[in-house]
Design goal:
There is one protein chain. This protein has nine helices and no strands. It is mainly α.
Length: 204
């Protein structure tokens, strides 16, 4: 999405304000003053500070969700090809891609993870967890029908473990890890969680 020079200044000042104070405590008056424009100029682009926040994060947020949904569908493609034992390898490959994407849009995800209280993005991670649990439950049901999965877990357990996993992934952003450190960290994270799922679900 292209922005005018005035809009770019507003976006940059707004990003700094949100990163410093969070959305709730960010001051629209301060943003306008720092940008050197009137409120009228601001309102020519955004109806409120929530719209500015959304403009700063929506493209990156939607991009990750699209990649995430594509990754979920890729697992279903393994079933007719009798390649379901590769699911954990596939998950780790996609995790690497996700983290690379996150680090290519780091400021946007820093806003989402650490500064989004009071916006529609405050449930972003939770919403991803719900998507993952719902689609994974469908995937596991298909595997059980084909006798390719022996184990099972309750939905509550599934949700808690998935929530822990996603929270751990986004800790890279919350703690300002370097890209290199984050990529090493998620390798260990994937090994840990994959081993647990293999033990509990017992893929065949």
């Amino acid at each position: 999405m292209e922005h005018t020079p005035t809009q770019e200044i507003i976006r940059e000042v707004g990003k700094k304000e949100f990163l410093s104070k969070g959305f709730k405590n960010a001051s629209l008056n301060h943003i306008v003053a720092e940008a050197g424009f009137t409120k009228g100029a601001f309102y020519g682009y955004y109806p409120d500070k929530a719209a500015l926040f959304e403009d700063l994060v929506s493209e990156a947020a939607n991009g990750l969700l699209d990649r995430f949904k594509a990754a979920q569908e890729a697992h279903f493609d393994l079933i007719p090809e009798n390649r379901t034992p590769e699911s954990r390898v596939l998950s780790t490959d996609y995790l690497r891609q996700f983290v690379e994407y996150i680090y290519s849009h780091f400021d946007a995800f820093k806003l989402i993870i650490c500064c989004a209280d009071g916006t529609k993005y405050e449930t972003y991670v939770h919403d991803m967890v719900e998507l993952e649990v719902n689609r994974s439950e469908q995937y596991y049901d298909l595997l059980r029908q084909q006798r390719k999965l022996l184990g099972s877990v309750s939905r509550d357990f599934h949700h808690m473990i998935t929530s822990a996993y996603f929270t751990a992934v986004f800790e890279t952003v919350a703690h300002d890890m370097s890209r290199a450190d984050a990529m090493g960290y998620i390798e260990e994270l994937a090994t840990f969680f994959n081993a647990g799922w293999e033990e509990v679900l017992r893929f065949l």
